[in-house]
Write the C-alpha coordinates for this entry.
Amino acid sequence: MVSPQNKLVLNCGSSNFSFAVPVDVAVPSKGRTYIAEVHFDPSGYMSGSVCYRRRHRGSFAFNRGALPDEVLFHELFHSLRGSEAAGNFGLNGGLSGHDDREEFLAVVVTNIYISDYTNGHRSGLRGAHFNHSPLDANLSRSLTFFKSSPQVLPLMRAFVTTPSMRRLCEALCSVKASFKPVAAVMDRSLAPLLEKLSQSDQSIKREAWMPFVTGAARLTEPGPPAPDFAAGMKGLGEELAREALSVLSR
Amino acid sequence: MDFGERFLIDVVLDQENSDPWGSSVRFDTWKLAVERELMKIAGSKAGMALLTSLRNKGKFRAICRRLLRWSAHRTSSS
Protein backbone atom coordinates (compact mmCIF):
# COMPACT_ATOMS: atom_id res chain seq x y z
CA MET A 1 0.00 0.00 0.00
CA VAL A 2 1.39 3.40 -0.91
CA SER A 3 1.40 5.97 1.88
CA PRO A 4 0.55 9.58 1.15
CA GLN A 5 3.38 12.07 1.48
CA ASN A 6 3.60 15.83 1.87
CA LYS A 7 0.28 15.99 3.61
CA LEU A 8 -1.29 17.51 6.65
CA VAL A 9 -0.26 15.34 9.56
CA LEU A 10 -2.32 15.18 12.70
CA ASN A 11 -1.09 13.04 15.51
CA CYS A 12 -3.36 12.42 18.44
CA GLY A 13 -4.11 9.00 19.82
CA SER A 14 -0.80 7.27 19.69
CA SER A 15 1.22 10.12 21.12
CA ASN A 16 -1.43 12.40 22.57
CA PHE A 17 -0.43 15.62 20.95
CA SER A 18 -1.39 17.17 17.66
CA PHE A 19 0.79 18.95 15.19
CA ALA A 20 0.14 20.20 11.73
CA VAL A 21 2.36 20.50 8.71
CA PRO A 22 0.67 22.72 6.12
CA VAL A 23 0.74 21.26 2.67
CA ASP A 24 0.28 22.78 -0.73
CA VAL A 25 0.71 19.81 -2.99
CA ALA A 26 -1.69 16.89 -3.14
CA VAL A 27 -0.06 13.58 -3.78
CA PRO A 28 -1.89 11.00 -5.87
CA SER A 29 -1.98 7.63 -4.23
CA LYS A 30 -3.88 4.54 -5.23
CA GLY A 31 -5.49 6.55 -7.99
CA ARG A 32 -6.90 8.94 -5.40
CA THR A 33 -5.74 12.15 -3.86
CA TYR A 34 -4.70 12.44 -0.23
CA ILE A 35 -3.74 15.73 1.31
CA ALA A 36 -4.43 14.96 4.94
CA GLU A 37 -3.50 12.20 7.28
CA VAL A 38 -4.91 11.59 10.72
CA HIS A 39 -2.89 9.63 13.23
CA PHE A 40 -5.27 8.11 15.66
CA ASP A 41 -5.31 5.17 18.04
CA PRO A 42 -8.74 4.62 19.63
CA SER A 43 -7.31 2.29 22.25
CA GLY A 44 -5.55 5.23 23.92
CA TYR A 45 -8.94 6.68 24.82
CA MET A 46 -10.66 3.49 25.91
CA SER A 47 -11.17 2.71 29.55
CA GLY A 48 -8.61 0.23 30.79
CA SER A 49 -5.77 1.52 28.61
CA VAL A 50 -2.59 2.93 30.13
CA CYS A 51 -3.27 6.31 28.55
CA TYR A 52 -6.80 6.38 29.92
CA ARG A 53 -5.58 5.76 33.45
CA ARG A 54 -2.59 8.08 33.36
CA ARG A 55 -4.61 10.95 31.96
CA HIS A 56 -7.45 10.39 34.43
CA ARG A 57 -10.04 9.92 31.70
CA GLY A 58 -12.35 8.37 34.27
CA SER A 59 -12.56 11.75 36.02
CA PHE A 60 -15.16 14.31 34.96
CA ALA A 61 -12.42 16.94 35.23
CA PHE A 62 -10.36 15.41 32.40
CA ASN A 63 -12.70 13.44 30.16
CA ARG A 64 -14.61 16.05 28.14
CA GLY A 65 -14.37 15.42 24.45
CA ALA A 66 -12.09 12.48 25.16
CA LEU A 67 -14.21 9.60 23.92
CA PRO A 68 -12.53 7.92 20.93
CA ASP A 69 -15.17 9.10 18.44
CA GLU A 70 -14.98 12.66 19.81
CA VAL A 71 -11.20 12.72 19.45
CA LEU A 72 -11.46 11.35 15.92
CA PHE A 73 -14.12 13.94 15.05
CA HIS A 74 -11.79 16.67 16.36
CA GLU A 75 -8.90 15.44 14.21
CA LEU A 76 -11.11 14.99 11.14
CA PHE A 77 -12.16 18.60 11.49
CA HIS A 78 -8.49 19.63 11.37
CA SER A 79 -8.22 17.48 8.28
CA LEU A 80 -11.15 19.28 6.68
CA ARG A 81 -9.68 22.67 7.45
CA GLY A 82 -6.57 21.72 5.49
CA SER A 83 -5.09 24.76 3.83
CA GLU A 84 -7.29 27.10 5.88
CA ALA A 85 -5.02 26.27 8.81
CA ALA A 86 -2.08 27.96 7.08
CA GLY A 87 -2.96 31.34 8.62
CA ASN A 88 -3.19 29.92 12.12
CA PHE A 89 -2.20 32.07 15.10
CA GLY A 90 -1.94 31.69 18.85
CA LEU A 91 -4.69 32.72 21.23
CA ASN A 92 -4.39 34.34 24.63
CA GLY A 93 -6.59 36.08 27.19
CA GLY A 94 -9.91 34.34 27.74
CA LEU A 95 -9.04 31.75 25.09
CA SER A 96 -5.52 30.97 26.29
CA GLY A 97 -6.63 27.42 27.09
CA HIS A 98 -7.27 26.81 23.41
CA ASP A 99 -3.68 27.39 22.29
CA ASP A 100 -4.48 28.60 18.77
CA ARG A 101 -7.30 29.43 16.39
CA GLU A 102 -7.48 26.01 14.73
CA GLU A 103 -7.70 24.19 18.06
CA PHE A 104 -10.34 26.62 19.27
CA LEU A 105 -12.49 26.00 16.19
CA ALA A 106 -11.97 22.24 16.43
CA VAL A 107 -13.06 22.25 20.09
CA VAL A 108 -16.14 24.39 19.30
CA VAL A 109 -17.28 22.22 16.39
CA THR A 110 -16.60 19.04 18.36
CA ASN A 111 -18.71 20.47 21.17
CA ILE A 112 -21.58 20.83 18.69
CA TYR A 113 -21.11 17.16 17.81
CA ILE A 114 -21.05 16.25 21.51
CA SER A 115 -24.24 18.17 22.25
CA ASP A 116 -26.01 16.80 19.16
CA TYR A 117 -29.17 15.05 20.37
CA THR A 118 -28.65 12.30 17.78
CA ASN A 119 -25.28 11.48 19.37
CA GLY A 120 -26.25 8.80 21.85
CA HIS A 121 -22.96 8.30 23.68
CA ARG A 122 -21.14 11.47 24.69
CA SER A 123 -18.86 12.85 27.37
CA GLY A 124 -19.64 16.56 27.83
CA LEU A 125 -18.68 19.96 26.50
CA ARG A 126 -14.96 20.63 26.51
CA GLY A 127 -13.67 23.90 27.91
CA ALA A 128 -10.08 24.02 26.69
CA HIS A 129 -7.78 22.39 24.21
CA PHE A 130 -4.75 21.81 26.39
CA ASN A 131 -6.72 19.47 28.59
CA HIS A 132 -10.13 17.84 28.52
CA SER A 133 -11.65 19.95 31.28
CA PRO A 134 -15.38 20.82 31.18
CA LEU A 135 -16.73 24.02 29.72
CA ASP A 136 -18.06 26.31 32.47
CA ALA A 137 -21.79 25.82 32.94
CA ASN A 138 -22.49 29.52 32.41
CA LEU A 139 -20.74 29.39 29.02
CA SER A 140 -22.23 26.16 27.78
CA ARG A 141 -25.15 27.50 25.77
CA SER A 142 -25.17 28.76 22.20
CA LEU A 143 -25.36 32.43 23.20
CA THR A 144 -23.62 32.50 26.57
CA PHE A 145 -20.55 30.91 25.00
CA PHE A 146 -19.77 34.32 23.49
CA LYS A 147 -19.08 35.55 27.02
CA SER A 148 -15.93 33.41 27.02
CA SER A 149 -13.88 36.20 25.49
CA PRO A 150 -14.25 39.22 23.20
CA GLN A 151 -12.16 37.18 20.72
CA VAL A 152 -14.86 34.56 20.23
CA LEU A 153 -17.18 36.60 18.05
CA PRO A 154 -14.60 37.69 15.43
CA LEU A 155 -13.15 34.19 15.32
CA MET A 156 -16.57 32.63 14.77
CA ARG A 157 -17.51 35.24 12.17
CA ALA A 158 -14.32 34.56 10.25
CA PHE A 159 -15.01 30.83 10.44
CA VAL A 160 -18.59 30.94 9.09
CA THR A 161 -17.62 33.32 6.29
CA THR A 162 -14.77 31.11 5.06
CA PRO A 163 -16.01 29.89 1.65
CA SER A 164 -14.76 26.33 2.11
CA MET A 165 -16.52 26.05 5.48
CA ARG A 166 -19.88 27.40 4.31
CA ARG A 167 -21.51 24.02 3.63
CA LEU A 168 -20.35 22.57 6.91
CA CYS A 169 -21.64 25.58 8.84
CA GLU A 170 -25.02 25.40 7.11
CA ALA A 171 -25.26 21.71 7.89
CA LEU A 172 -24.32 22.33 11.53
CA CYS A 173 -27.09 24.94 11.77
CA SER A 174 -29.67 22.24 11.06
CA VAL A 175 -28.35 19.98 13.82
CA LYS A 176 -30.54 19.76 16.91
CA ALA A 177 -28.10 20.42 19.70
CA SER A 178 -27.89 22.33 22.95
CA PHE A 179 -24.65 24.06 21.93
CA LYS A 180 -24.81 25.82 18.56
CA PRO A 181 -22.64 28.96 18.45
CA VAL A 182 -22.21 28.50 14.68
CA ALA A 183 -25.97 28.86 14.17
CA ALA A 184 -26.02 31.84 16.54
CA VAL A 185 -23.34 33.73 14.64
CA MET A 186 -24.98 32.95 11.29
CA ASP A 187 -28.28 34.38 12.50
CA ARG A 188 -27.97 38.06 11.60
CA SER A 189 -30.82 39.05 13.91
CA LEU A 190 -28.65 37.96 16.85
CA ALA A 191 -25.69 40.15 15.90
CA PRO A 192 -26.44 43.01 18.35
CA LEU A 193 -26.97 40.55 21.21
CA LEU A 194 -23.75 38.71 20.41
CA GLU A 195 -21.85 42.01 20.36
CA LYS A 196 -23.25 42.79 23.79
CA LEU A 197 -22.40 39.35 25.20
CA SER A 198 -18.95 39.53 23.67
CA GLN A 199 -18.23 42.78 25.53
CA SER A 200 -19.94 41.76 28.78
CA ASP A 201 -18.29 42.14 32.17
CA GLN A 202 -17.70 38.42 32.40
CA SER A 203 -16.04 38.39 29.00
CA ILE A 204 -13.71 41.27 29.89
CA LYS A 205 -12.85 39.76 33.28
CA ARG A 206 -12.08 36.37 31.75
CA GLU A 207 -9.79 38.06 29.27
CA ALA A 208 -7.72 39.33 32.19
CA TRP A 209 -7.56 36.36 34.55
CA MET A 210 -7.88 33.30 32.34
CA PRO A 211 -4.18 33.28 31.37
CA PHE A 212 -3.28 32.84 35.07
CA VAL A 213 -5.91 30.15 35.61
CA THR A 214 -4.79 28.33 32.47
CA GLY A 215 -1.14 28.60 33.46
CA ALA A 216 -1.85 27.05 36.85
CA ALA A 217 -3.97 24.31 35.28
CA ARG A 218 -1.21 23.43 32.83
CA LEU A 219 1.12 22.77 35.75
CA THR A 220 -1.30 20.28 37.30
CA GLU A 221 -2.30 18.59 34.06
CA PRO A 222 -1.84 14.80 34.12
CA GLY A 223 1.17 13.83 32.02
CA PRO A 224 1.51 11.16 29.37
CA PRO A 225 2.17 7.58 30.36
CA ALA A 226 5.65 6.86 31.59
CA PRO A 227 7.61 3.96 30.09
CA ASP A 228 6.68 0.58 31.51
CA PHE A 229 9.30 0.44 34.26
CA ALA A 230 8.23 -2.95 35.60
CA ALA A 231 8.48 -4.61 32.18
CA GLY A 232 11.87 -3.02 31.65
CA MET A 233 13.18 -4.28 35.00
CA LYS A 234 11.80 -7.75 34.29
CA GLY A 235 13.69 -7.85 30.98
CA LEU A 236 16.85 -6.66 32.70
CA GLY A 237 16.43 -9.29 35.40
CA GLU A 238 16.07 -12.01 32.81
CA GLU A 239 19.19 -10.82 31.02
CA LEU A 240 21.17 -10.86 34.28
CA ALA A 241 19.84 -14.32 35.18
CA ARG A 242 20.90 -15.69 31.80
CA GLU A 243 24.34 -14.13 32.20
CA ALA A 244 24.70 -15.61 35.70
CA LEU A 245 23.69 -19.07 34.47
CA SER A 246 26.17 -18.90 31.62
CA VAL A 247 28.94 -17.97 34.09
CA LEU A 248 27.99 -20.81 36.47
CA SER A 249 27.85 -23.36 33.68
CA ARG A 250 31.42 -22.64 32.52
CA MET B 1 -19.47 -2.94 2.53
CA ASP B 2 -16.98 -1.40 4.94
CA PHE B 3 -16.86 2.21 6.09
CA GLY B 4 -14.39 3.37 3.47
CA GLU B 5 -16.55 2.11 0.61
CA ARG B 6 -19.67 3.64 2.09
CA PHE B 7 -18.21 7.03 2.86
CA LEU B 8 -15.29 7.13 0.42
CA ILE B 9 -12.76 7.68 3.18
CA ASP B 10 -9.85 5.28 3.19
CA VAL B 11 -8.29 3.64 6.20
CA VAL B 12 -4.72 3.02 5.12
CA LEU B 13 -1.54 1.89 6.76
CA ASP B 14 1.60 3.93 6.94
CA GLN B 15 4.36 1.35 7.26
CA GLU B 16 7.21 3.82 7.17
CA ASN B 17 6.61 5.13 10.65
CA SER B 18 6.79 3.46 14.00
CA ASP B 19 4.35 3.29 16.85
CA PRO B 20 5.91 5.57 19.49
CA TRP B 21 4.29 3.74 22.37
CA GLY B 22 5.26 0.33 21.17
CA SER B 23 1.74 -1.05 20.98
CA SER B 24 1.57 -4.55 19.62
CA VAL B 25 -2.01 -4.24 18.38
CA ARG B 26 -2.43 -5.79 14.95
CA PHE B 27 -3.43 -3.61 12.05
CA ASP B 28 -6.72 -5.39 11.48
CA THR B 29 -7.68 -4.91 15.12
CA TRP B 30 -6.85 -1.24 14.93
CA LYS B 31 -8.73 -0.80 11.65
CA LEU B 32 -11.87 -2.38 13.09
CA ALA B 33 -11.64 -0.09 16.13
CA VAL B 34 -11.25 3.00 13.94
CA GLU B 35 -14.16 1.99 11.73
CA ARG B 36 -16.30 1.51 14.81
CA GLU B 37 -15.57 5.10 15.86
CA LEU B 38 -16.21 6.35 12.33
CA MET B 39 -19.58 4.61 12.35
CA LYS B 40 -20.41 6.35 15.63
CA ILE B 41 -19.59 9.69 14.03
CA ALA B 42 -21.68 8.82 10.98
CA GLY B 43 -24.56 7.92 13.29
CA SER B 44 -25.10 11.52 14.38
CA LYS B 45 -26.26 14.46 12.31
CA ALA B 46 -23.29 16.68 13.19
CA GLY B 47 -20.91 13.82 12.47
CA MET B 48 -22.52 13.19 9.12
CA ALA B 49 -22.21 16.90 8.34
CA LEU B 50 -18.45 16.69 8.83
CA LEU B 51 -18.06 13.48 6.84
CA THR B 52 -20.17 14.88 4.01
CA SER B 53 -18.03 18.04 3.98
CA LEU B 54 -14.91 15.90 3.73
CA ARG B 55 -16.41 13.95 0.85
CA ASN B 56 -17.77 17.02 -0.92
CA LYS B 57 -14.39 18.64 -0.89
CA GLY B 58 -13.47 16.05 -3.47
CA LYS B 59 -10.36 15.02 -1.66
CA PHE B 60 -9.81 11.84 0.23
CA ARG B 61 -8.22 11.82 3.59
CA ALA B 62 -6.26 8.93 4.88
CA ILE B 63 -6.58 7.77 8.42
CA CYS B 64 -3.29 6.22 9.24
CA ARG B 65 -1.52 4.76 12.15
CA ARG B 66 2.14 4.38 12.75
CA LEU B 67 2.65 0.66 12.88
CA LEU B 68 6.22 -0.39 12.34
CA ARG B 69 5.65 -3.25 14.75
CA TRP B 70 2.82 -4.58 12.67
CA SER B 71 4.99 -4.23 9.62
CA ALA B 72 7.84 -6.06 11.33
CA HIS B 73 5.44 -8.77 12.48
CA ARG B 74 4.17 -9.26 8.96
CA THR B 75 7.69 -9.33 7.54
CA SER B 76 8.90 -11.89 10.06
CA SER B 77 5.87 -14.14 9.60
CA SER B 78 6.00 -14.11 5.80
Remarks:
- Residues 53-222 of chain A form one domain.
- The first strand of chain A starts at residue 8 and ends at 11.
- Residues 229-248 of chain A form the longest helix (20 residues).
